[in-house]
């Protein structure tokens, strides 16, 4: 017997965005391929502009006196035949990740968004819109104070020694500084996110405000160890301002929300148990 095909329209897609596991895996594969293609295009662009980008990246090192001890000019060393190729590739990849960030961030967003509610989508878009400028602001600040930090670290060289810094070591230092400063500027945004999901109440943050501000000053002194108050304040002051802005947002958000019935109880205090009122039997009361 020949099998009859069932006629009729195909079932509609799930309005809640649910799909089988294999469909999820196919979508993930496609979005990963698109993201990788965007990174490859960014890598090609980075390879083309690697020369001007390297001139900008090495400027903090060239502003220190140790960069001219060996040849009288700003110079960094490398060892190995293939080292120059991989260093150029590393610079190009850094540029490519930055250039292609809108594409691969969108692919992450498009893959995650079907599982989110409408309010969660709105919050996520707001966080993405703020996270990128905050990270860029921290990275720019790291670049401007990098020469002070380098000059202090190189001042520990012994008498009669010459600093011959390899290019890959210097690039690792630049990358670490950019990541530290960029991520530190994201912490206030993380506080707001934890407050929105109910993990971190504003009262807890305000209780430890002085300690947090003190730790920010300590962090600024450690990362910019030149002993100059201007360099330390250049990092600590923006972080404190962002922290206070995050606390204000948490305060305004909690103020708009209605207080719960047991909102005046502390975290370790149990809410009172109330027995439900007994229903009177109409037959017995009459």
UniProtKB/TrEMBL annotation:
<comment type="function">
    <text>Part of the twin-arginine translocation (Tat) system that transports large folded proteins containing a characteristic twin-arginine motif in their signal peptide across membranes. Together with TatB, TatC is part of a receptor directly interacting with Tat signal peptides.</text>
</comment>
<comment type="similarity">
    <text>Belongs to the TatC family.</text>
</comment>
<keyword id="KW-0653">Protein transport</keyword>
<dbReference type="GO" id="GO:0033281">
    <property type="term" value="C:TAT protein transport complex"/>
</dbReference>
<keyword id="KW-0813">Transport</keyword>
<feature type="transmembrane region" description="Helical">
    <location>
        <begin position="173"/>
        <end position="199"/>
    </location>
</feature>
<comment type="subunit">
    <text>The Tat system comprises two distinct complexes: a TatABC complex, containing multiple copies of TatA, TatB and TatC subunits, and a separate TatA complex, containing only TatA subunits. Substrates initially bind to the TatABC complex, which probably triggers association of the separate TatA complex to form the active translocon.</text>
</comment>
<keyword id="KW-0811">Translocation</keyword>
<dbReference type="GO" id="GO:0043953">
    <property type="term" value="P:protein transport by the Tat complex"/>
</dbReference>
<protein>
    <recommendedName>
        <fullName>Sec-independent protein translocase protein TatC</fullName>
    </recommendedName>
</protein>
<keyword id="KW-0472">Membrane</keyword>
<feature type="transmembrane region" description="Helical">
    <location>
        <begin position="32"/>
        <end position="50"/>
    </location>
</feature>
<feature type="region of interest" description="Disordered">
    <location>
        <begin position="260"/>
        <end position="286"/>
    </location>
</feature>
<keyword id="KW-0812">Transmembrane</keyword>
<keyword id="KW-1003">Cell membrane</keyword>
<keyword id="KW-1133">Transmembrane helix</keyword>
<feature type="transmembrane region" description="Helical">
    <location>
        <begin position="233"/>
        <end position="252"/>
    </location>
</feature>
<dbReference type="GO" id="GO:0009977">
    <property type="term" value="F:proton motive force dependent protein transmembrane transporter activity"/>
</dbReference>
<dbReference type="GO" id="GO:0065002">
    <property type="term" value="P:intracellular protein transmembrane transport"/>
</dbReference>
<feature type="compositionally biased region" description="Acidic residues">
    <location>
        <begin position="264"/>
        <end position="286"/>
    </location>
</feature>
<feature type="transmembrane region" description="Helical">
    <location>
        <begin position="123"/>
        <end position="143"/>
    </location>
</feature>
<dbReference type="InterPro" id="IPR002033">
    <property type="entry name" value="TatC"/>
</dbReference>
<dbReference type="Pfam" id="PF00902">
    <property type="entry name" value="TatC"/>
</dbReference>
<feature type="transmembrane region" description="Helical">
    <location>
        <begin position="211"/>
        <end position="227"/>
    </location>
</feature>
């Amino acid at each position: 017997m020949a099998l009859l095909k069932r006629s009729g329209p195909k079932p509609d897609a799930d309005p809640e965005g649910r799909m089988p596991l294999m469909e999820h895996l196919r979508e993930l594969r496609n979005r990963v391929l698109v993201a990788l293609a965007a990174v490859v295009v960014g890598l090609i662009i980075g390879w083309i502009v690697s020369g001007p980008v390297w001139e900008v990246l090495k400027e903090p090192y060239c502003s220190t006196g140790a960069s001219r001890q060996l040849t009288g000019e700003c110079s960094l060393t490398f060892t190995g035949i293939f080292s120059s190729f991989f260093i150029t590739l590393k610079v190009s990849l850094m540029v490519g990740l930055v250039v292609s960030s809108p594409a691969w961030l969108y692919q992450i967003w498009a893959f995650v968004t079907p599982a989110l509610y409408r309010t969660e989508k709105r919050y996520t878009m707001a966080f993405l819109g703020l996270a990128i400028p905050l990270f860029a602001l921290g990275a720019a600040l790291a670049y401007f104070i990098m020469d002070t930090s380098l000059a202090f670290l190189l001042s520990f060289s012994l008498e009669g020694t010459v600093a011959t810094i390899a290019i890959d070591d210097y690039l690792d230092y630049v990358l670490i500084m950019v990541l530290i400063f960029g991520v530190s500027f994201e912490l206030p945004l993380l506080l707001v996110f934890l407050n929105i999901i109910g993990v971190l109440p504003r009262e807890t943050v305000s209780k430890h405000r002085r300690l947090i501000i003190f730790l920010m000053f300590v962090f600024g002194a450690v990362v910019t160890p030149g002993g100059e108050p201007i360099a330390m304040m250049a990092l600590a002051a923006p972080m404190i301002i962002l922290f206070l802005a995050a606390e204000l947002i948490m305060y305004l958000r909690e103020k708009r929300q209605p207080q719960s019935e047991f909102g005046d109880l502390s975290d370790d205090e149990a809410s009172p148990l109330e027995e439900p009122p007994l229903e009177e039997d109409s037959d017995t009361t009459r």
